[in-house]
Amino acid sequence: MANAARYNMGSIRPAVIGMGRVFGASLTAVSAFPVDTKGHHDAGEEGGSSLWVLAVASMVLVLLGGAFAGLTIALMGQDSIYLQVLSGDPAESQSKNAKRVLKLLKRGKHWVLVTLLLSNVIVNESLPVVLDRTLGGGVAAVVGIIFGEIVPQSICVRYGLPIGGYMSTPVLILMYLTAPVSWPIAKLLDWILGEDHGTLYKKSGLKTLVTLHKSLGEISERLNQDEVTIITAVLDLKDKPVAEVMTPISDVYTLAEDHILDEKTMDDILSSGYSRIPIYRSGNHLDFVGMLLVKTLITYDPEDRIPVRDVPLGAIVETRPETSCLDIINFFQEGKSHMVLVSEFPGSDHGALGVVTLEDVIEELIGE
């Protein structure tokens, strides 16, 4: 953002300087005009009073030049996205200032820039005319640079937002006063360079930003490692396929549809710790016909030795391995199922690769 502001300032500064010199030409002409010779007594009185006038005028011009130079840094250095973040946070101490600056910049960032540069150039072109007659050329240049450029810009770099918020109304008034000149130039810049919309981050940039918040800022406001892990994992959900988080089919606890639910099988099911068990067709370990909910077995007696096919089975949903984790978690949120079969050929009797559950996605989020 700062680079963009410097680019804009550099691109329009020559034109603005030219206009400023036109406005300041009259003062230069006045300074060069010969003064009528008067008596010693009158000349002494006039010399004393005019010196005070020149001193006051010099102070006013230096302050104005510094204000315009500082406000250029204070306002142009603000990122509109960052201002929206601050203005939308009621707990943020600079929320009011952010709203004021954002409201001002929405009228046209180039309009604000041209107004401040034009005003600064007019003052800077007029300042040597007055300051040279008060302090002399060399001293005047040093005073003008220190108090008209270095000091105000240094202050506004550090306290740009509060100063910009406090001075937003005077700047708006100045924008309307210079509108006949500044507004057309600003619109031309909008057309040539485009309007500024703030800094937007890609996902990789957001992850870097989140990671930086683990070590920067006040200790009480820093993110801990768990928060960083979860936030970055959420940002990766859309681009991460389920094939990366699924349990391979070779590691999945499965049963054949003709398997007898005797006491040993019941013990194995309970000791496995799974709440859902994929059921495959007898003779084909990759052709799944349904899903057994373990809680339904509570009504069955192992001594009955019934086959799995006689127990009501739930439907098993199938998906391709490239399906994103975000789509899967959205499906799980619908409450229809908490297990999905990952298959290269969904709906066929072959191609099963593994299963993904809600627990798998949650573990991916928390980094386990």
From TrEMBL:
GO terms for biological process: intracellular manganese ion homeostasis; magnesium ion homeostasis. Residues 47-227 form the CNNM transmembrane domain. GO terms for cellular component: cytoplasm; membrane. Residues 246-308 form the CBS domain. Gene3D superfamilies: CBS-domain (3.10.580.10). It is found in: Membrane. The chain crosses the membrane at residues 12-32, 52-76, 110-127, 133-151, 163-183. Keywords: CBS domain, Membrane, Repeat, Transmembrane, Transmembrane helix. It comes from the Eukaryota. Its main location: membrane. Pfam families: CNNM. CDD domains: CBS_pair_CorC_HlyC_assoc. It is a multi-pass membrane protein. InterPro entries: ACDP (IPR045095), CBS_dom (IPR000644), CBS_dom_sf (IPR046342), CNNM (IPR002550), Ion_transp-like_CBS (IPR044751). This is Protein MAM3. It comes from Fusarium oxysporum (Fusarium vascular wilt).
